[in-house]
Q: What sequence folds into this?
């Protein structure tokens, strides 16, 4: 047994493996993820960590996840305080771990949309520099 197989057997229980395999994958008409970067095995490792945070640390009790449709565009807007948007992780886990109680509520993979201009620690000066042409950024860095 190799190291990867050993870690997988310890970190990803069989029920989690089956749960992630049930989720409809975001695969486009050309046979790949149109947003890029979806890796089913990486999702399983991420879910094993998210599950601990969801169930053991925060002890989340989610309600209303069955109201989110199984497919099609949906906006779920979270209001979080602090620097880490942990609520997005918890909402994503709640959607992905929901049981298939009816035909319109199977587990669903979510996509996070983030605005880097909305991050509190970014200064207005940094945002102005980013709006300039790419070569000018290096020139600005040399001037400082």
A:
């Amino acid at each position: 047994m190799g190291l990867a197989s050993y870690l997988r057997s310890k970190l990803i229980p069989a029920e989690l493996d089956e749960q992630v395999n049930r989720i409809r994958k975001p695969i486009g008409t050309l046979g790949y993820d149109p947003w890029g970067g979806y890796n089913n095995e990486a999702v399983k490792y991420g879910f094993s960590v998210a599950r601990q945070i969801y169930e053991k640390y925060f002890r989340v009790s989610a309600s209303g996840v069955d109201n989110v449709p199984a497919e099609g565009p949906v906006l779920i807007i979270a209001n979080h305080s602090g620097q880490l948007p942990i609520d997005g992780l918890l909402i994503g886990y709640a959607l992905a771990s929901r049981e298939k109680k009816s035909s319109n509520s199977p587990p669903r993979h979510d996509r996070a949309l983030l605005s880097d201009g909305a991050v509190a620690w970014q200064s207005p000066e940094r945002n102005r520099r980013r709006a300039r042409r790419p070569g000018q950024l290096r020139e600005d860095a040399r001037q400082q």
About this structure: The helical segments are 3-11, 14-22, 40-57, 86-96, 124-130, 134-143. The radius of gyration is 19 Å. Residues 3-113 form one domain. The chain is about 45% helix and 0% strand.
